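**Polypeptide and fold**
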Amino acid sequence: MSFRYVSRTLRLRRPFEAARCVNGEVTSKAGRCGHGAWQTVGRRGIASTANAERVLFPGALNSQFTNDMQFIRPQSLDAIPTYRVMDQNGRVLDKEVGVETEDGLAVELYQNMVCLSIMDLLMFEAQRQGRLSFYMVSAGEEGIAIGSASALHPTDVIFCQYRESGVYLQRGFKLSQFMNQLFANRKDGGLGRNMPVHYGSKELNIQTISSTLATQIPHAAGAAYALKLQNIQNPEQEPRVAVCFFGEGAASEGDFHAALNIAATRQVPCIFICRNNGYAISTPTSDQYRGDGIASRGAGYGISTLRVDGNDIFAVRRATNEARRLALEDGGKPVLIEMMAYRVGHHSTSDDSFAYRQKVEVEDWKRRDNPITRLRKWLEGRQLWDDVKEKELRSAKRKDVLKAFEEAEKEMKPGLRNAFEGVWEDLTQEQRMHAKELKEILEAYPAEYEVGPYEGGVGDLDALLEEKKR
């Protein structure tokens, strides 16, 4: 996987910019001319006249007629450029513009990326030791999650896939909250009802992660439509956008295409962020698609699109900030950003990636370029970081993670009543019957079912069954 072309100019591609007038003149910077753009929202087709020079069919407004039959051959077109701010050595390409990030914030972002990588390493080892059932690391993609989250407003609503722990960390999710969810203990916000790494936070405006692939994408489009109405009805409040993260593998699902089409036709304020890390579990991108990545699909749906070097956290931040501004223009419009990265780790603790890729390939990427080392080079170039600070940071973060881990591991599991509550306001008769049956089984076979680790033990079911309807 390689970046064919890298651009230092931030320019989101707007599909209508390619439109041309009937006389052949290029459209204005806004993508419109006296005859209108290639597609005008809300406009209906009108009957074509005998001497018309452009298409007036409702399905392709303003397409110019031609008697020269030429198929569009994608392989003959230039690839969409990849935007970046600094090179692999941490050198800023456009010194006049700079990185648009204060030194203090840059250090904070670096510390969070290091913290995330340490947590990933320790949790991966804990799973191999049998202390956790499942985990997913973010190695190679830390800059995408942390960089984009740092550029969003706290009230923006976020929909994650499963590799966005950095989004939670940057938004203020505590290490104790990560660990409580991983152990599914009584302090877990989901009370043990979800898989590990399926976090959620109402306080941080992040929707709970779902195991099913790509379902969050249409959810985000729908939420963005609701936010659009709220933004219009409450002009005195900070306008909000919906932000959706997903991998390039999820973009192969029908939900992706439905969501982008809904977002485009409804003109909703939604930022779609695709983490293109080269692999959908064991499937490389060469077996996933033949087009120019995921960015090319945005233009097809009439969405402003940009491809970004995901190893460059400053490019990620600037792109996300500009995407948010565009998403709120004219009442709302969707934006697609394809963040390019390389998945250094295995897909999950259930995967052995060396079964489908060479270890030397992974080691080469780890050595050559990743978001953490690139930002560190920039920090060192400004005398903001050194080996002493690095050692102190890693030692402190490791202690913090292990402390939170050990405390969460000792906590009791949620009470058994939580297997039945939280669905209906009152337990149904069928639920009461199931709870009673479970209680009888646990009491009949105490040696087979250890309920000691669960808060309240069997007595928790007794209390549930004795409660009267509200």
User: Anything to note?
Assistant: The first helix runs from residue 103 to 128.
